[in-house]
Each structure stands twice: as C-alpha cells, then as structure tokens.
Write a structure and sequence with these properties.
By secondary structure, the chain is mainly beta. It has one domain (about 65-245): Jelly Rolls (Sandwich). It is about 0% helix and about 40% strand. It has no helices and 17 strands. The protein has strands at about 35, 45, 65-70, 75-80, 85-90, 95, 100-105, 115-125, 130-140, 140-150, 155-160, 170-175, 180-190, 190-195, 200-205, 225-230, 235-245. The strands form 3 sheets. Strands 3, 5, 6, 8, 13, 14, 15 and 17 form an 8-stranded antiparallel β-sheet that branches. It has a 7-stranded antiparallel β-sheet with strand order 4-7-16-9-10-11-12, with no helix packed on it.
Length: about 250
C-alpha cells in the first residue's frame, strides 16, 4: 500500500527580540509539498515551483511624486504574502490588516533610488508589533526601516552588514501609541540613511560607507518599495517622495 508523505519546510521568521538579544524561534504554517498520485510507478514528491521574479519599478526623473493621495490606491498593490491580511482603502488611508505573520503593500510605479526624501504618516491600529516596516531603495539595494518592532518599541534599519534591526548599530527604541498618527521622514543619500519620527526627533543617522545594505528575506515581497506589518493592523497616508541635493 502506498503511503502519503508531507514535507514541511521550516521558515525563519522576521521578528527580532530587541537590541543585541537573541531572536526567538518562531514558526508559521507554510504550504508543503504534495505527492503525485497519477504516476503508476514509485511515489514521487512534487516540489512547488519557485515564484517568478517580477521586474522592479523603473527609476523616475521627476523631482516630486505623490505616491498616495488618499483617493485611490494608484500603483500600490498588496504584497504577495501567503497568509497576509486584507489591504483596503478606507477613510483616505491604506489599512494593512493583521496577517499571519505579515501583510504589506508594494509600489509598482516609477521610483527614486538615491538622493531622495520619502515622507508618510503611519499608525498602529491594533497589535503590539511593527506597524511600519518601510522597505526602500538604497541605489540598487533595498533596506527596511522598522518602526515599532519586538513588543512595539524597536526602531532600526534592517539589514546592516547582514544583521537585522535588533542586532546592529542603528537599533534604538521609543514608545508608540495605538491609534496615533506618526509622521515619518526618510532621507537617502549616497553616504547616509537618516530618519525622523515626529518632526525633529531624528532616530536614524547612519553613515553607509564600508557597510553592506540589505533586507531580511521575509520583506522581499515589498521590495524595492513597500510597507509591511507584523501580526499587527496598521495604516498609512500622505505618502510623498521628493528628490534632494545631498
């Protein structure tokens, strides 16, 4: 009698345990492999095909772009997370509902890759983790600004020299309240990545020389520009990008 086997692929998850601490061992359901029953010969395990890579958005020559005006989704689409929550336009904001584990949106239009400032407002509606994982281009390399990770307070860049936001020199913390809008400003130049939260509160000031810039693989569905949440419902609005002179 033939027997049926299910191959479960372990997945390392995104969440980190805080500055300079060990990351927890977490797991989430992942589609497994299946057994072909049409072959009369020996049993064969069918390995799912790797998702095809989509072309990244082209670079723009515009000096200023409104990426979200509150009236329509425009060129934002839901990021391809297997168990992601719902993404919807509501009350002039994009609501990114809680997923298992992540939900996100991805920008599919033209973008700026260097010497730009991106501004937006973000809010944690429900949950206790990051409500704005902003993945952005640094030249041809993506990077992610995490706001409110690991218990709701971690802020940092992920990844720097292959270390995520909880384990590199950009790691810091601050309090975020549910139901409150936080203005976020990100500045990207060839020698620095900087970020401000709530106006003059500069929370990232990182010199990029001699460092490797990257992302964790879990945010790949959002690259080169996107926003994700982790087991949290968040919202964003007033997204704009302007070209700057470094």
């Amino acid at each position: 009698m033939k027997s049926l086997f299910l191959v479960i692929v372990p997945v390392t998850l995104l969440i980190v345990s805080g500055c300079k601490s060990e990351r927890p061992e977490l797991s989430k359901p992942t589609p497994g492999t299946s057994v072909s029953t049409s072959d009369p010969g020996p049993e064969k395990i069918v390995v799912p095909e790797k998702p095809k890579e989509t072309l990244e958005a082209p670079e723009t020559t515009e000096k200023e772009m409104v990426l979200f005006d509150g009236k329509q989704m425009g060129q934002w689409v839901p990021a391809e997370y297997v168990e992601g929550g719902k993404v919807e336009l509501k009350d002039s904001m994009i609501v990114i509902e809680k997923g298992n584990d992540m939900t996100g949106i991805k920008w599919t239009g033209p973008l700026m890759r260097m010497n730009y400032e991106l501004t937006l407002e973000a809010m944690r509606i429900d949950g206790e983790d990051f409500f704005c994982g902003l993945t952005f281009p640094y030249g041809n390399a993506p990077c992610t600004l995490i706001c409110g990770g690991w218990g709701g307070s971690l802020v940092g860049l992920s990844n720097i020299d292959y270390y995520d936001a909880a384990n590199n020199q950009t790691c810091t913390s601050r309090t975020f309240e549910n139901g409150k809008w936080y203005p976020i400003r990100l500045r990207v130049t060839s020698d620095k990545i900087e970020a401000w939260i709530e106006g003059d509160d500069k929370i990232i000031d990182f010199e990029t020389a001699d460092h490797k810039i990257g992302i964790r693989f879990e945010v790949s569905p959002c690259k080169p520009l996107g926003i994700a949440t982790w087991r949290t419902t968040g919202a964003v609005r007033n997204i704009k990008v302007v070209r700057i002179t470094p």
